[in-house]
Amino acid sequence: MIxxxxxxxxxxxxxxxxxxxxxxxxxxxxGKVVSxxxxxxxxxxxxxxxxxxxxxxxxxxxxxxxxxxxxxxxxAGDKIKVxxxxxxxxxxxxxxxxx
Length: 99
Known about the structure:
This protein is an alpha+beta fold.
């Protein structure tokens, strides 16, 4: 009986650790640039729906076609992938431009 209880507790702890690690991971979503302003990125999803904005800090890593860029370098229509930490802060924006 004690062995079963111990096994159940170990299994429950394992599930909790795995679940916690999944929630702590960075989250990403993709879409298109609508507009940029100082410290603000407005985007939609890939279908041009669900328009929303993100605060962009000076420390946010921004790339355009794989090269370091500034928020002001992004243009409407650029495809983007936004990465947020578990607190919702944008940590990276990776953009690609159709040529």
